[in-house]
Amino acid sequence: MASTASGATESRTPLLSIKNLCIRFGGVLALDNVNLDISPGRIVGLIGPNGAGKTTMFNCISRLYQPTSGRIEFAGEDLTTSTPQRIARLGIGRTFQNVASFDELSVLDNVRIGAHTRSTGNIVSDMLSLPNARRQERSIDETAYKFIDYLGLADVAHSTISSLSLGTRKRVEIARALAMSPRLLMLDEPAGGLTHSEVAELGRLFVKIRDDWQITILLVEHHMQLVMSVSDEVTVLNFGKNLAHGTPSQIRSNPDVIHAYLGRS
Amino acid sequence: MNIRTLSLIILGIALVLVPFVLKGYLVFQATTIVIYAIAIMGLNILTGLNGQIALGHGAFFAMGAYLMAITLNVWELPFYVGFPIAGVACFVFGFLFGFPALRLEGVYLALATFTLAVAVPPVLKLSFLEPVTGGVMGTLVPAPTTPFGLPLGQDQWMYLLTLLFLFLMYGMAQALKSSRSGRAMMAIRDNPIAARAMGINVALYKTLAFGLSALYAGIAGCLSALVIQFISADSFTFFLSVYLIVGLVVGGAAWFPGALIGGAYIVLVPNLVETFSPPLAGSFYGLLLMVMMLIIPKGASGLIEKFFPRRPSASDTSRPAPREDGGDGPVTIGRPGR
Ligand SMILES: Nc1ncnc2c1ncn2[C@@H]1O[C@H](COP(=O)(O)OP(=O)(O)OP(=O)(O)O)[C@@H](O)[C@H]1O
Ligand SMILES: [Mg+2]
After folding, report:
1. pTM confidence score
2. Mean pLDDT for each 10-residue chunk of chain B (338 residues)?
3. What is the predicted ipTM?
4. Does the beta carbon of B181 lie under 8 angstroms from any beta carbon of chain A?
5. Nearest-neighbour CA in chain A from B213: distance (Å)
6. What is residue A93's three-state secondary structure?
7. CA-CA distance, B198 to B207, in Å (whole number)?
8. Are the beta carbons of A62 and B311 separated by less than 8 Å?
């Protein structure tokens, strides 16, 4: 990745643009005037010490939290007043830091639920199994199996989530997010709790997802080696503020970043 | 065909044969069981699929029964018109009631709906409603005659009509469960936050589940009016709501065939304990329920699951087992508990 971050953002209009985002929880300003532009087709790493506000930023983008002020634009549309449904429909998929699966359901059903917004229907035709409902169901299945195969989950497609290992659950979450056919995929600590070889495999998977489906990726991760190896650019948050932004090598040698990490741990 | 499907088919055939094998009062009892099973299936949708707990469905049952009586007595329409009227009315009422319910969870929701069950019987007794409800005295409901000159006794015909509704509504509930809407409901039950992030309209599906469960209770109420041929406010005390929940728990929350077991429990067990010791019947009933909950906390569905597992419990062997670190805690969207 030769181009620097600034070069890339100038050349294309950003897919996601965050401007002066603030969110306050009681006395805590969890995000304090955060800015971030993400160009289409990039893998952007979002790092920062514990409590820096990374997950909070995801939650603001997917509208699970209401920002106190600031603007979030996605593909030119202002998201500040959109509902989570609208966000999903626009094409922002995500995974959760503490795996948030539908535990009583099968892997297949989890991934099918990912395709919910990519399909339409109504409860009456669903309950009467009308032809349009059955047609819809076939197309949902097609999508679901595509991503189940893509993530190598075919063997466990019919297993209940609660019977699976953490690593497998995390892949199910990624498959579920892909079934939303997102343009932006937000991954919150996907490597947390995985083994060494699983992490390496995950890195290759992210690049492959980007290349195969032209999906832009925003990656929150504490596993530095993973972030630095797959990201085109990296942005650093500290105490809810932007600390630095640049290529992985720029970030690695940035004195502020080094200080933020060493100063705390 | 697997053993589950086969058992269901055999069960279905056995149910059809019931009124030709049993006689008189037993057919009436069987009909009552099926009626309760229909109402309980509604709760299967609300609680089993969607994870909401409501204690007030006796009110929708009453509403269905009264609407059937009004259709026959006041509007003088044929009985089969009563079903769509009551079904739609209960659905709409339940759907609307689902909105305030959105703000409440668990016990609070149960309590709020309980007020519905308590409030309805006195309203039905109000004197100015007497022309339509029959007031305190209640009202007679003319039983529909056997159609097409079929050689069936009145009780047989009523049983088969009720069973037809059970089959239809079971089919619809089952179709719902494996559909896009049903999955949305189950997603909300399992993880409302993730469901929202998947773009599921949580408010819509919660209120729909509420409306559907009210519809099921309403249809059951219609049938009960036709079968008993008399309704009064005292047939729908809040105990009815409690019994329906008992039936739900006994049958298992998310397993539709369990509704029949739940229905059988609430019809047969009170009689059974009554024969032991009439004054202590209530205590026996409670005790039995407690013992059952200890032995099979997940109701009949838990037993079935144990003896006929749905799939060979697939062990996840595709990858080496990773370290588990905190992936099992309650799901939070924010910080992990580190
Ligand atoms: N719902 C909430 N209510 C109150 N405070 C919150 C809430 N969510 C986040 N915070 C606060 O916001 C700050 C940022 O938290 P956040 O979870 O975004 O950090 P993070 O960068 O994801 O950290 P980690 O790497 O540990 O996951 C913390 O101080 C946290 O306590
Ligand atoms: Mg976090």
Report:
1. 0.88
2. 84 90 89 96 94 89 92 87 95 89 79 83 75 72 78 88 96 96 96 95 94 97 92 82 88 85 86 73 74 71 67 39 37 40
3. 0.91
4. yes
5. 13
6. strand
7. 18
8. no
